[in-house]
Amino acid sequence: MQGAAKPASNNPPSATNARKFFGRGGVLSRWHPNYEFRPGQLEMAEAVESAIEERKHLIVEAGTGTGKTLAYLVPAILSGKRIVVSTGTKNLQEQLFYKDIPFLQQHFDREIRVCLMKGRANFACRQKIYDAEKEPILSGMEEVSDFKIIREWERTTETGDRAEILQLPEDSTVWAKLDARRDTCTGQKCMQFERCFLTQMHQRAAASDILIVNHHLFFADLAVKEEDFGGIIPDYAAVIFDEAHEIEEVAGSYFGAGISNFQVLDLLRDVSALARRKLFDTPDLTSAIIQTQDLSDQFFALFPRVEGRTGFSSQAAFLAEHGNAYRSLLIGLDLLESNLSLVHDAPEELIPLVRRLRFLRDTLKFWMESNTRELVYWIERRGKNGIYLQATPIDVSKLLEEKLFAQMDTVILTSATIAVQGSFDFAQKRLGLKNNRSALVPSHFDYQKQALLYIPQHLPDVRSPGFTAAAADEIVDLLEYSEGRAFVLFTSYSQMKQVYERVSFRLPYEMLLQGTAPRTALLEQFKNTPNCVLFATSAFWQGVDVPGDQLSCVIIDKLPFAAPSDPIVEARVALIREQGGNPFYDYQIPQAAIALKQGFGRLIRSKTDRGLLALLDHRITSQRYGQIFFDSLPDYAFTIKKPEVERFFRNGGDGGTQ
Q: Do both 367 and 431 map to the same domain?
């Protein structure tokens, strides 16, 4: 249940500060069944505690096994202030709310008032559900069947969170017709406002001390506070970012601007559906909707049909050639707005649609006609029909410094992978963090005994044509040694598919391929299938936890440098070079080092885990910059000899050399 956790009924010990909680003989030692004093956990907890008390910013890397979640939760609870905890994923949000907070509540002598907050699309809209029973918005038997599931669930749910409906398919098309997105929300004028799941979430948040959000919701809130709509998250004294290495990319997506043909299509569908439901559809309005759709199709079809991201810096040339198509689309949107303004006794639901129309029109004009050097303009084609026009800040450091760090007394950034060569210089510069405190807390694990890092020297250079075939042969050998039980991680989809096709038929183990099923389903299948092997890309490099023998090997094909052709990477590289820096050493290597730490971090998740880490890219040993990667990784045992890998698995003993 979302809301305040219940206090323990027994007489629990209490703590007034981090040391009394985490120290030897402290509260934690008296009630944790598997208590083991962790100096790093106490060090981090005291650093978080003093940062909150003294209103300072803090950045801290806490290695896997440190117990960093409790190390920031306990000081946050003890502070008595309203603290936001922002995570990189919804899964971590739910772990904090459903596991960690109840675990702590059993042993706190006062109520921990906490609220789990998610974005609007995660919640059902009661009014839409009730309308759907009376109005023809469902298409096909699958939607009718899914609607029945949602309708029955709505009668009993206390939260309205889609995550509760386990039997609803992930790809269900009916949810988007029933969720609580702002696009069609009438706010306090809605008949269901008092019973609205969002209203209730906001009420719980206003009465809570700990607010658990994710990075996307946090930065959506930060961006919306710049507008007239007001914030989503109530005022707070401090924010703690877990998985803080993701902040730059997430913040960039919310401080930029974007429009897609799907957004225009969704708007037109919503206008048409509302007009039919509320009986204000007229021939003129229908004609305006059809005309706008045609003009949108014509306009978006003019962009390059290249899959993936492509830079776009030629707005002037595009307008010179296709200005008529652009202006016609603007006229079509204006005509649609004029038709909507003529609706007699317009229903409240029309107001957010008109606001949305204006936003799309203004965004389109900004993207086509502005030419600020602070933004990189790019297009992305997704599948056959999706065309997205995006503008992203090249450097978010000034924006974060101004909108976040300068506005907040305390911002705490933590991650298991945020330092490079033991330094926070890279993260601080990229995020605009200044005059902060820092702490580097080592892991609780004995990596020398638990993990062997293998870098084969006999493979071709990763950039050579023969690498794929040779890598596939090497992977087969390694999987035979490990008896499957492996993640094979790639830096590109095409390489993943090529290697999978070469390897999957050569071994008797179950082979899973990213993209053949939802991510959560693949992960569950991996956990429950003995000797399973998963071939995956960046989606599985972080936020995945498989402790135990089920995952005993992680193989990575190449050093995870971001694609230099990516328009955002290209723009950031150009800016660093323009400012007199060295983009390879100042940006590309540190970013890749953090990504490599993330990938390898999937393997050792507990003190009893052990296994092999293999990197098939020997540039790490042959190029001068490779030392930066080694200096950033934990102190694994290391070898370049395949027989030592075989011996590592065969006898269960230590392998490798220092």
A: no
Q: Cα dist. 620→559, 625, 657 in Å?
A: 8, 7, 17
Residues in a beta bridge with 614: 454, 555
Q: Give CA–CA dist 263/254, Å, rounded.
A: 16
Phi, then psi, of 312 in degrees rounded to 5: -145, 100
- Is 404 part of any domain? yes
Number of domains composing the chain? 4
pLDDT value of position 653: 45
Q: H helices within 558-625, ranges in order?
A: 567-578, 583, 589-600, 619-622
**CA distance linking residue 479 with residue 28, whole number of Å:** 41
437 shares a domain with 458: no
Q: Rounded to 5, what percent of the chain is helix, strand, coil?
A: 50, 15, 40
Q: Does the residue 12 lie in any domain?
A: no
- Taking alpha carbons only, the member of 110, 98, 131 closest to residue 2 is 98
Asked if residues 360 and 337 have their Cβ atoms less than 8 Å apart, the reply is no
Per DSSP, the three-state class of 188 is: helix
Residue 232 has pLDDT above 90, yes or no: no
Domain residues for 131?
120-207
One domain, residues 591 and 489: yes
Annotate 611-639 with b (16+ C-beta within 10 A) or e (fewer). bbbbbbbbbbbeeeebebbbebbbebbbb
Whether the Cβ atoms of residue 120 and residue 198 lie closer than 8 Å to each other: yes
CA angle 95/101/104 to nearest 5° reads 130
Mean pLDDT of the chain: 89
Q: What pTM was estimated for this model as a whole?
A: 0.89
Helices (H), 491-551: 493-503, 519-528
Identify whether 226 is part of a domain: no
430 phi/psi in degrees, rounded to 5:
-70, -30
Taking the C-alpha atoms of residue 353 and residue 337, their distance in angstroms, rounded to an integer, is 10
CATH number of the domain that residue 100 is part of: 3.40.50
Task: Give the C-alpha separation, 603 to 304, whole Å.
Answer: 41
Is 50 exceeded by the pLDDT of residue 303?
yes
Which residue, of 191, 207, 223, is where some domain finishes?
207
251 within a domain of the structure (yes/no)? no
Residues 640 and 502 in one domain: yes
Query: Could you tell me if 600 and 594 are in contact, meaning their C-beta atoms sit under 8 angstroms apart?
Result: no
